[in-house]
């Protein structure tokens, strides 16, 4: 059985407003202290997409790439485990790319052409993506507020 729960919102509006304000202030303080934790899509960097003959372990690839100090995220793709995406926020030059591919080829059986599997993402493109993302969030929030205002009575819409 579900017990009926009656909350008098109008009577306790100050408490609810204070709680909402506290959550927003805490979020703002955390944002100001820590800032955005942006990934390769926004900061720029290098993205490797590499296929293998056999299934590979992401942790083993990470160990093999430690000498390059990439601080990379390694993501297994495909249900068979024969594909890997390596994302790093560092710019990787041509010689380092070749060395990385040689290690992956010799130790894990990497296949394909390295030139087709490497994407360099510039910080300019990342800044444009960030700007677009922020605009999208603002437009979505405004759209939701307009919908709530039209759908519900005015005093409930303002509270929402």
Description:
With 160 residues, the chain is an alpha+beta fold. The protein has two domains: 13-37 and 124-159, no CATH class; 45-121, Alpha-Beta Plaits (2-Layer Sandwich). The chain has seven helices and five strands, in the order ααβαββαβαβαα. It has helices spanning 13-34, 40-43, 58-64, 94-108, 114-117, 123-151, 154-159, and strands at residues 45-52, 73-77, 83-88, 110-111, 118-121. Strands 1, 2, 3, 4 and 5 form a five-stranded antiparallel β-sheet that branches. 13% of the residues are buried. The mean pLDDT is 80.
The appropriate CATH architecture of the largest domain is: 2-Layer Sandwich
Whole-number count of domains: 2
Q: Which stretches are poorly predicted, pLDDT < 50 over at least 5 residues?
A: none
User: Which shape, going by the Cα principal axes?
Assistant: elongated
N-to-C series of helices and strands: HHEHEEHEHEHH
Radius of gyration: 24 Å
Task: Name the structural class.
Answer: alpha+beta
Averaged pLDDT: 80
Secondary-structure map:
Blueprint: H1 13-34, H2 40-43, E1 45-52, H3 58-64, E2 73-77, E3 83-88, H4 94-108, E4 110-111, H5 114-117, E5 118-121, H6 123-151, H7 154-159
Antiparallel strand pairs: 1-3, 1-4, 1-5, 2-3
TL;DR?
With 160 residues, the protein is of the alpha+beta class. Helix content is 54%, strand content 16%.
Structural key phrases:
2 domains; alpha+beta; 160 residues; 16% strand; Alpha-Beta Plaits
